[in-house]
Specification:
This protein has a single domain, classed as Gcn5-related N-acetyltransferase (GNAT) (Aminopeptidase, 3-Layer(aba) Sandwich). Helix content is about 30%, strand content about 30%. It contains four helices and seven strands, in the order βααβββαβαββ. The protein has about 200 residues and is an alpha+beta fold. Strands 1-2-3-4-5-7-6 form a seven-stranded mixed sheet, with helices on both faces.
Length: about 200
């Protein structure tokens, strides 16, 4: 398995475009594991709205990198591994935000002042990188836990697709997450989860 380094995302290194490449690689790969319904069959990298959304994520992360964590904060990180030539290449991405995604706010508040959390709206790897990206997701979860400690939080929340016999839910549960509530958004079945640090 690769050894990974994690760095802040940057527009200068086109990390917004890399995140969309990860989506496209997953969309091609998911049918092979029975999860073709998770994100459909069409690439997203060419969609202007999606491009703008992820550019904004990275821009907000850059702008707030040296600022205290606040109610509108966002951090985007990229995991890199060295290829066979020793060159560091991006293999996975992580987004952390101060608020839950809009589409889950029927099951979890945007933020809970009595039980505050950091939200993880995206954890994704580039399937085109093959074995080079294997284990990157777990590395980024561990990185997120360290970020929580540094920022003074003890609760990490996320959501994921709950189709395909809940296999993705089971992945998160195997990493210490606990299922909180199910939801459906535009016909998409999902699960909200949390991980609590001791």
């Amino acid at each position: 398995m690769s050894t990974f380094t994690v760095r802040p995302a940057s527009l200068a290194t086109n990390d917004d475009a890399f995140l969309l490449e990860c989506f496209d690689s997953q969309i091609k790969w998911l049918p092979s594991v029975g999860a073709g319904d998770q994100w459909g069959s069409e690439p997203v990298s060419g969609e202007p709205d999606t491009q703008n959304r992820y550019r904004k994520y990275v821009q907000t992360s850059q702008d707030g990198e040296r600022q205290p964590w606040g109610e509108d904060s966002c951090r985007v990180y990229i995991a890199e591994a060295n290829d066979q030539n020793g060159k560091a290449v991006p293999v996975a991405g992580l987004i952390l935000t101060a608020k839950a995604s809009d589409y889950v706010q029927s099951t979890i508040p945007a933020q809970d002042p009595t039980d505050p959390f950091i939200y993880m709206p995206l954890l994704i790897s580039d399937r085109e990188k093959g074995s080079l990206s294997k284990g990157a997701g777990v590395t980024l979860i561990e990185f997120a836990k360290k970020e929580l400690v540094m920022l003074g939080f003890k609760r990490l929340c996320c959501d994921c697709w709950s189709g395909n016999e809940r296999r993705l839910v089971q992945f998160y549960e195997s990493k210490g997450f606990k299922a909180l509530a199910s939801f459906t958004h535009d016909g998409w079945p999902g699960q909200v989860l949390e991980l609590r640090l001791e």
